[in-house]
Amino acid sequence: MRQDPLAFLTTELNALRDQGLYRRLRVLESEALAHATFDHTSVVNLSSNNYLGFATHPRLREAALEAVRTYGVGSGAVRTISGTMALHVELERRLAAFKKVEAVVVFQSGFTANAGTVSAILNKDDAIISDELNHASIIDGARLSRATIKVFPHKDADAARAIMRDLPAGQRKLLITDGVFSMDGDLGPLPALCDVAEEFGAIMMVDDAHASGVFGAQGRGTVDHFGCHGRVDIQVGTLSKAIGVLGGYVAGTRDFIDFLCHRARPFLFSTSHPPAVTAACIAALDVLESEPQWMEQLWDNTRFFKAGLTALGFNTGRSESPITPVIVGEAPVAMQFSDKLFAQGVFAQGIGFPTVPKGQARLRTMPAATHTREDLQYALDMFGKVGRELGVIP
User: From its phi and psi, is residue 317 left (phi > 0), alpha (psi between -120 and 50) or beta?
Assistant: First the structure.
């Protein structure tokens, strides 16, 4: 009998089970609401990136349905053959105006936007200077580019400057940071990093996935929040978090975007967004620009929930955004905490190594604009109850 060449993976999975790190996927059985049904259980959903509730907004629903009625369910090809629809062109035009840049190109996901961009514009002779906590898609793009990778301590602009100083003056350099860091919820020091990039003639890049729709005027992101328009060469955004739909995009100069359309492999070799997705994204921009109450409610809920966790004695780290980690230490404790909360009607996903450093395991919570005050108070009550049971808080 032939031996299973993948048997080693079973061994790896068993090791995860022994360490308390094995996770079964929770199955969403309702709309992606602030109070949703997972695994036949109604829960307060604190594990969604649907910050503003746009995933179920009536204007986005209707735009998607109308696009299907008008254009069908798919584009039929990649963008560079016959898959560029008028809707794609309009979405990119709207995003460019929203981000106050010359041009935008849309990718199939935020991950491919980051990885495809970095790997397209650099080669083995270049250098990348990257924050140690940057998103995995930035790390993968850097590896694919074959450029020299230099990592600086989290948010340490002076360390980034020291790295730059030691690199050859004529070498092409790319300085990258997240706008909002996805596990800690803190903001990248964008003005200080822009200073470094300008001092050494480096390309400045920001992944603003978790800032889009959350920071800046009408949700334009950290570049707007910090007043850094004209200082950031490459902005990456997402359409699958606050926008509520699917995809990612890259914003910059017209020549830069044209180059990506010729060289970015995810753009060249993936079918374009279906009409429903594209139309819903356009509608989301309409809502962002005309219904400011969603961002206001998001921040009201964020302040309430953070204050409640702090009053209970939880460690929420250095969060400055709706992403609010509840740091508990070891991964098995985080997973047990998450499971006990779920049994009490609260979904807050446990996260451990290698996503976060060892000893920094956490429950990653995300209050949304559409949570009611009753939802959040109930979640706080259950956090207190389970936290005391597990000895995480007194």
Answer: left
Among 3.90.190.20, 3.40.1360.10, 3.40.1390.30, 3.40.640.10, what is the CATH number of 58-290?
3.40.640.10
Enumerate the domain spans of the chain.
Answer: 20-51+292-389, 58-290
Question: Which pLDDT does position 247 carry in this prediction?
Answer: 97
Q: Which residues are catalytic?
A: 182, 210, 241
Mean pLDDT for the stretch of residues 175-203 = 97
> Residue 354: CB partners within 8 Å, gap ≥ 6?
none
pTM: 0.95
For Cα atoms 163, 169, 171, give the angle at the middle one, nearest 5 degrees: 85
User: What radius of gyration, in Å, describes the C-alpha atoms of the chain?
Assistant: 22
Supply the DSSP symbol for 271: B
Sign of CA dihedral 316, 319, 325, 330: negative
Mean pLDDT of 17-38: 92
> Distance between CA 22 and CA 320 in Å, rounded?
30
